[in-house]
Amino acid sequence: MNDQDRVRRPGGRSARVGAQVHQAVTGLINERGYGNFTVGEVAARAGVADSSIYRRWGSLESLLSDVALTRLNAQSPMPDTGSLADDLRTYAAQVAREITGPDGLLLVRLAVALSSDGGQGLRAADELRADRTRQLQSMLDRARDRGERTPDALDVLDHILAPMYIRVLFGMVPLTPEYVDGLVDRLL
Amino acid sequence: MNDQDRVRRPGGRSARVGAQVHQAVTGLINERGYGNFTVGEVAARAGVADSSIYRRWGSLESLLSDVALTRLNAQSPMPDTGSLADDLRTYAAQVAREITGPDGLLLVRLAVALSSDGGQGLRAADELRADRTRQLQSMLDRARDRGERTPDALDVLDHILAPMYIRVLFGMVPLTPEYVDGLVDRLL
């Protein structure tokens, strides 16, 4: 689902405002980079009042985190194939596709920037990470319940996600399917 | 060796200018972040002419890359202990100390920023990475020559450096000695 679809989707004023605000944030990040715009500028571009944004999200940092999480979840829903190896391969391939795609680095940089500006940004980044970790943990818990040998969520971060992130951040692309599958096989 | 020592070190005008320019760059990055200053501002702070900087470094990007590499080499020289396990543990501990130290994230962010602004920045980042990879490769080659089983340099990047970088970038610190040694042991 792209932003355009989301705008057209029925769901009342609240969903429409949410989509417009998300789209405004993505556009501003693309044009100016994270941190180089204000709530007022997001509001103006989205065609809503500043106060609507503060009421719903509380701060620019929470809004940015919400945008990041929404896009992550839309692009990389956690798979449930019935086997951990297949779940992890599917998940890793999704993440690889997402972070090498047009908005991909944006998301990684947003997460990095949220983590590094302290205060609210740090809390927002913690929430974003906690949310994704919970989803990953559910996938791992399902595998454990099926009796499969299961790594920790932090091992998945360290040995599947981190190498892909760093290679993309350093411009060492593309991430081939062989490379991505290899990271999963090595961990399992 | 800190910048102050380097300034006082004998070695003529060229070494002095180099140290002053490096110090100016570090200060400007700390105050304004990467990308938010010009060669002219570096020159003014260092007390040298713009043309001296262009003659020696060619571009702001090459200068930034040189600063990053000089600091990396000063802070994390490649160890040569006679055993790959000890070399890698020492190296990983140095990197962990450096990236969790006061200038640490600066260097990682500089490398990331150099990689992501395209053109000259990308080439400078490639050189920086190539330089460090050559040093790492020498360490691995020495181990191979001694008959030790030796991972690829890219495996070291993926499974020792990348997890530490990502944890620091995401604010998941400190990196305990147990964690860092564990990354090395797991790879070997």
Describe this structure as you would to a colleague:
The structure is a homodimer of 188-residue chains. By secondary structure, the first copy, chain A, is mainly alpha-helical. Chain A folds into two domains: 12-58, Orthogonal Bundle (Arc Repressor Mutant, subunit A), CATH 1.10.10; 78-187, Tetracycline Repressor, domain 2 (Orthogonal Bundle), CATH 1.10.357. The first copy, chain A, has ten helices and no strands. In chain A, helix 6 packs across helix 10. The longest helix of chain A is centred in the last third of the chain and has 27 residues, at 119-145. Chain A is globular, with a radius of gyration of 18 Å. Chains A and B meet through helix 7, helix 8 and helix 9 of A and helix 7, helix 8 and helix 9 of B.
